[in-house]
């Protein structure tokens, strides 16, 4: 391989406006748009996931689904609607359950006079009992579990659902927080507390493995404090990742629900001795938020950067020829190259190739693929064809670097190159996290690390440069009042208490109480 | 191979009560229940798809999705909710659009006084504009298409969505007609009428191929008359299958929408000469109804019968041993057999094996798998193990027939056996259809074939024996008034005018007008 100048005219010099440094929040929206991952719709807070974004989601689904099945789970599907009475039952058992949700009250549209006095269609056929569009399915799945579980022989019951859910969010951002989103929710029931806790931690481990090995996103596995727990859970575990603006993003949660939901849904079984007990349950989920996390972990000022193992396509081949007499030969050459690449196995599938022969300017075409984050771009012109070589550009090396590679060498080394990119993305993200994580041993240090809350520094306007801090690792004795204060004064939350790593005797930097482990504090999404 | 008596005690003699002959509708519900495919929920008309049923759906999805992608379609995802105003816009363009749908009017639950005077949770936070849970997505996808399509270069636009949809149905039946169901909906836009019509027919062909080659269900491809068309469509094409009670079931539709929806959604493009035109669009869909169709095509009085190519699992291995000292050796033998079978490629995946070592009665265990419709059951006891053979039962051969097969022969021939079952199911269904299809050449013959409508003969109570008729192939000049009369008097509809087969000059048996093709008439689901 030898580094050379590109054959074609220089491409336009900037892709995403603004840059991360100028305005991180706006940069994020522009990357989503430019990469054609998703767009907003006329429905408040609901997004359209475009083909490139949905193909990424399908790859996530495929890999996660295999991991769930290997660990013994089966998929099923439960109703979109939950009767209002289920929420009343839950409200009795669970403090602080979600109330912002979409409520169906009618089952017909009929001609009538609208609120503004004009004639049109109005809701008709009022329901006796309103239905809620599921914000999560513990209660409706619990109703089935209560029927399915009779004896210890029916346990463990290990179920997963891929579904859409709706939570009425006041402020939404594509992928990170939308009114409707896609997710999977695992729900399991066990005969013993120990088994349920093992399941909770096993799925936390599955999420962490997936985030690190497939998304190339380093995560901290930890437990939430009481203040940040899922309503109704006994323990909530999570994976937390650091975004490029040094804020934390919770990317997946796994809840140990004790017997709380079994009580609410009446999930009981008779044990070996015929004694009737309540089951122990868990739930765990990840969502399309994962895509937002990948963008904020890997994308750069040129656009999206896809981890190769999950990329909808690995390589785009662009025929470059200005003479009509060579066009067909170059296209045929590219078609054969694509066919050969599609035979190569990689990351549980085969290399996926886009052959882009559209009749648009070469520079525009390259930039579209750069913004979309495809790992490899390959250009083939008549001279390359004669030399049986291709011009290759790696998405992780800046948009100017292209190298000439012999065709056969390109095919023989493509999986090595992709794996090098995959591990490079992970290493870069991990180095960024380590650089911006600090052991903090006093409240004064903590305050200096984060600085006072800046009103202009909220999600919608924050810039990469102005967010202070990162991950503060500090001894902490959990206390709701302290967390309230930190949120108000510094916009900081306790992200988690890591489950890995050594125990370490210490003193809470806020209360002076004893602590055995450092917690992670950060600003967050 | 030699036919022998089973080693274990005789199994119970009947599985499904009632039989098809006794009460077809009730038999259907009992098969769904006994096969553990789905169950009703507390939410009116919404079903729970159980793991065995959902795995079947996943297999359908996987194969269909591949067929859609091979034909150039990409998946995307659009909002669950559709603004009320979109329906008003559609109502202007489309006569007879669906009005029975779930309407979201509030976005919060709050404490309050309920209709019955008791305190509880009530809907709060009324929406300015109500939202409708999608019954189908032409309008919301049309809104995106209007943005995505600018120039002829953006066409054709070939999109598919896998999603849940909701239609408020008065009478529901698991899989066949439910308030919420899962489906795929293809939506495409084209520059010319010809291309859009080609797409419409191409997807009809995909559905027919899938139904026949994968579901083992023979179908007639045809066009609907105006009376049965999708509201807003110019032409609606469908695949129609005959169920075991000789009624027709529409299993998939493909609509040529002309420019109607492009007008409603403002999908325009500039052509090569810069002239602005409306696009030509299509839509096509199949749903979880496919599972109902498979049940009513193949299941028998013992329960479900799965077409091997789509079966969630192909073979169950049951260790049969009553002596503790041989139990482990038999189990190990079965585990090795399962591992070897899982290496065998079949129908785009590998043989999927259930190893059932549960501690329940052997007869109950066998019957569970018979009812679930697994293609092959294999029993292995200590004596089989010594002889290196297994006892095999085929689901399509009645529950009493078991044969002893050498282990290696079983592995070597399993794909041949499964393909034999697959083609046998298809042949049996096709013979049933042919036996019950009749060329009808006069109104008198037609009336004798179907008999007058019997009020007791509706879906909920019909028995296999009492439904008269089948498929009547008669010359017909489409006329809404005639179809109204046939529906009222005979509960018969024109299912379609087949697109294949020779043209044939004739005279409409109802009106005496000329006709060039026979139409298919039947009672239907």
Main attributes of the structure:
homodimer, 13 helices, Rossmann fold, 28 strands, 3 domains, disordered N terminus, Translation Initiation Factor IF3, 6-stranded mixed sheet, 525 residues, alpha+beta, BirA Bifunctional Protein, domain 2, 11-stranded mixed sheet
Question: How does the SSE layout of this entry go?
Answer:
Two copies of one chain form a homodimer.
Chain A: E1 2-4, H1 24-34, E2 38-40, E3 47-49, H2 51-70, E4 74-75, E5 81-83, H3 84-93, E6 103-113, E7 119-133, H4 138-148, E8 157-166, E9 180-190, H5 193-213, E10 220-223, E11 235-242, E12 248-256, H6 260-265, E13 268-270, E14 276-278, E15 280-287, H7 289-298, E16 315-319, H8 324-341, E17 345-346, E18 349-350, E19 353-355, H9 362-372, E20 376-380, H10 382-386, E21 389-394, E22 402-406, H11 407-435, E23 437-440, H12 443-450, E24 471-475, H13 480-490, E25 493-498, E26 506-507, E27 514-515, E28 518-522
Parallel strand pairs in A: 4-8, 16-19, 16-20, 23-24
Antiparallel strand pairs in A: 1-22, 2-3, 5-7, 6-7, 8-9, 9-15, 10-11, 10-25, 11-12, 12-15, 13-14, 17-18, 20-21, 21-22, 24-28, 25-28, 26-27
Helix pairs in contact in A: 2-5
Structure described in brief:
Chain A is an alpha+beta fold.
Number of domains of chain A: 3
Count the beta strands of chain A: 28
Task: Tell me the radius of gyration of chain A.
Answer: 26 Å
The chain pair forming the largest interface, with residue counts per chain, is: A-B, 67 and 67 residues
Look at the structure and give the mean pLDDT of chain A.
93
pLDDT below 50 for ≥5 consecutive residues: which ranges of chain A? Answer: 1-11, 459-465
The assigned CATH architecture of the largest domain in chain A is: 2-Layer Sandwich
Structural class of chain A: alpha+beta
CATH class of the largest domain in chain A: Alpha Beta
Count, helices of chain A: 13
The end-to-end distance of chain A, rounded to whole angstroms, is 43 Å
